[in-house]
Each structure stands twice: as structure tokens, then as C-alpha cells.
Specification:
Layout lengths: L1 E3 L6 E10 L4 E6 L3 E8 L2 E5 L2 E5 L4 E4 L5 E5 L3 E9 L15 E2 L13 E4 L2 E4 L3 E2 L5 H12 L7 H24 L11 H9 L7 H8 L3 H12 L3 H18 L4 H7 L5 H12 L3 H5 L18 H4 L3
Parallel strand pairs: 1-11
Antiparallel strand pairs: 2-9, 3-8, 3-10, 4-7, 4-9, 5-6, 5-8, 7-13, 11-12
Helix pairs in contact: 1-2, 3-4, 4-5, 6-8, 7-8
Length: 310
Amino acid sequence: MQHGLERQTPALNFASQATAYAGQSWGPRTIPDNQLFYVRDGTAELRAGGRAWTLRRGQSALLGPACPHRLYACEQTEYYSVHFAWHAESPEPVHPAYGLRDVPASLLEDRLQPQAVRLGDNALELPLCIAIPAVEGLLQRIAHEYSGLSDEAGSAYLLRALTMDLIVRLVRFVHTVQKPSPASADERLRPALQALAGEPDKAWSVAELAQRCGYHPGHFSRLFAAAFGIKPKPYLNRERIRSAKQALLGGESMERIAERMGYSSIHHFSRNFKATTGLTPGEFRQQPGRDTPPSAQRQGRCTPKERMGI
């Protein structure tokens, strides 16, 4: 199935922030629309297409209507669940509960036809497991807005805009991951690039990335610098700060960012941020022209059906 980004008029069908107990399972099943299942804290497992993925903090499952799957909470897990349609005439939500279908476990072993997005002349294949940087603040806002849908005029249209924001972030990230790297490094550095794309907020060391490629750290650093014009260590720091900027503008707290990105303390995070940008995180967020970060949102009201995390 292929979607053209330029012609999308999405609809948000369901959104919640919830906690699953250890051992809670969804499926094997199919869904009638699309779902982004984002792990905020804890560990979950996705099984589909004859494979299994472990989803940790900051990682998501991206599921479509033709994807038999099973989600499983390996431990107590906080998560966001967002169901959406790529295209809908009306922005009004169509709750997915009535279209959920139980399927035989044997279908989890069948090969899947991946979803794809057409971006200009390029077709981008959408992965089942993805780690979109700095998306938690947006998911929180979507869940909050959905929970108050009946209370505010125009919420369905705002949810359409927020869902389009989510889709654009998804497509941009996939495009960044899939765009060709320099020819000289295409194959030799690919394992390291895939590791960075899969866990962009992890505090990767040069030695860890070099090991992924089977090289000594010194040789890996020379290959990396020749391919990208920058050594791995400053590149990794630049990417962490870029992700931190997105998270700050998305309203995520400095405590959460520091913890998620592996800094030993908020002080360490702030010091590194200022050394790189010339501003403290607070000063960066308050610059003129920057969006004011959303205030802490209350967790949305959920019906018993919503608390099931569909």
C-alpha cells in the first residue's frame, strides 16, 4: 500500500496515554486503520511478519490495516496509542474498536507487504519498528486534545493538523534514514548508521559503533571522517543536541530529556548544551520567535475501552 504525502487529509481516530501491566497482550489481531504504539517507559514486544522486535523507551510500532500483529508488554509499560487514517473526507474520528479482528497466531509468520509513502519521485518504505526523535510532546498533545474532543469546538480539525504534523515527522525521519550515504561509506558504515537511526537518543560511543562495523575505533573514525567530513564524536554530540532542541521545542522537560539521552545529570546536559549552542536549554526555549512550549498536560480521560490501549 502506498500513500502520497502531498494529497493526505488525515483523520485522528483514537489517542490515549496509558499504562499496561506486565504480560498484557494485544492480539494476534488486525486493525482497521493505522496505529503508532509509542513506548514512553518500560519494554514491549512486537511480533509480525515472522519477526519479533523489542520496543524500548522512545521506540514505536507502526502498524497498518493489512498487518497481522501481536503487541505484548514485557513489564509494566507506559505508552501512547494513536490510531489514524492517512486520508479521510471528514476529520471526525472513527473509533477503531469496531474494526478490530482477532486472527490466528499462524498469520504472524506470514510475510508482509510493507506500507510506503510517495515523496516526490521517491517511494519510502515504512518500517514496522521506528524511533522518531522528539515526538513525545506531540503525542501528549494529541492524546490530550482527543480526550477533550466533545468539549471544544473545532477539535477534529485541530487533531487533523496535529496528525499531519506527526505524519510529516515520520516521513522526514524515514527519508533521512533511507537517503543514500556517501558512496565511499555506503556499505562499510551502514551498520553504524542503522544503529544511530534505530536508537537516535542513545549515548552511543565511538567504540560501540566501530564494533558494529567490525573495525578498530581509530580506523572507523578515519572512514567516518572521510565520508562525512566530521569525526564520529563531534557528529554524535551534534545529533544529540539537535534531538534535544526538538524535544525542548516540543515541550519535553529538561529532566526527561537528560534521562532519556543518557546524561548523568541535568547539570551535565545543560553544560553540554551550552558548550555546543552558546545557550542554556532554558535560554534556547525562550528565544524570540520560538514556539512557547506547551504546559504540562493532564492525562486524558479514558473510557474502559480506551484503557485497553487499542
